[in-house]
Design goal:
The structure holds 2 protein chains of 2 kinds. Chain A is mainly beta. Helix content of chain A is 0%, strand content 48%. Chain A has no helices and 11 strands. Chain A starts with a strand and ends with a strand. Chain B is an all-beta fold. In chain B, 0% of the residues lie in helices and 50% in strands. In chain B, strands 2, 4, 5, 9, 10 and 11 form a 6-stranded mixed sheet that branches. A 5-stranded antiparallel sheet of chain B has the order 1-3-8-7-6, with no helix packed on it. The chains are: A mainly beta, B mainly beta. At the A-B interface, strand 4, strand 5 and strand 10 of A face strand 5 and strand 10 of B.
Chain lengths: 116, 113
């Protein structure tokens, strides 16, 4: 069964450093998402991406964040200068549609980001 | 911001018991999704609901899309130890075209063998 994959599973970085989190969405999906989950809290939307551009972003997704689909399979989230409060699980998700009856989103296993 | 409220926050039940949890909002949703999350892993989609009043089953799980489009419930029958985890409801607001999901805060289920 196709699934979303993410690498690395755990990333430890120093405050101020840049990190890139990688995702391979399900191959025939067209919509891609990043969410984050701070320990013990609910999952929060960061950004959605369709047709090579951002569809929507949350207030969390400030100028320090960017997303890219560098080739036909990968979808990346870059944090330019990490802060302590960026420590969280980051989940990539993908769906075939963006709304209506076809936006079942499938999540990857997550990358745990720890900022020291 | 928009919120989904899940209740109860946690449940402790005996193996074999049935479980019911729900999710409510002050806003209308056009889709309800129920996910299960195990510790340290990503949410796994259990059931998707698309029409008001729709009742959908997936094995021992049954979920319903409320008539008002502002609530949904999830039932688990004859619980087993592997049902342990956090159950999240989620959905896109009816006017949202980008697919952004709003998540509830979760219901944590513990099952005693």
């Amino acid at each position: 069964e196709p699934e979303v994959t993410q690498t690395p599973s755990h990333q430890v970085t120093q405050m101020g450093q840049e990190v890139i989190l990688r995702c391979v969405p399900i191959s025939n999906h067209l919509y891609f998402y990043w969410y984050r989950q701070i320990l013990g809290q609910k999952v929060e939307f960061l950004v959605s991406f369709y047709n090579n551009e951002i569809s929507e972003k949350s207030e969390i997704f400030d100028d320090q964040f960017s997303v890219e689909r560098p080739d036909g399979s990968n979808f990346t989230l870059k944090i330019r200068s990490t802060k302590l409060e960026d420590s969280a699980m980051y989940f990539c998700a993908s769906s075939h549609g963006g709304s209506g009856g076809d936006n079942e989103q499938f999540f990857g296993p997550g990358t745990r980001l720890t900022v020291l | 911001g928009q919120q989904l409220n899940q209740s109860p926050q946690s449940m402790f039940i005996q193996e074999g018991e049935d479980v019911s949890m729900n999710c409510t909002s002050s806003s209308i949703f056009n889709t309800w999704l129920w996910y299960k999350q195990d510790p340290g892993e990503g949410p796994v989609l259990l059931i998707a609901l698309y029409k008001a009043g729709e009742l959908t089953s997936n094995g021992r799980l049954t979920a319903q899309f409320g008539i008002t489009r502002k609530d949904s419930f999830l039932n688990i029958s004859a619980s087993i130890p592997s049902d342990v985890g956090i159950y999240f409801c989620a959905g896109p607001l009816f006017y949202n075209q980008g697919g952004k999901l709003i998540f509830g805060q979760g219901t944590e289920l513990s099952v005693k063998p």
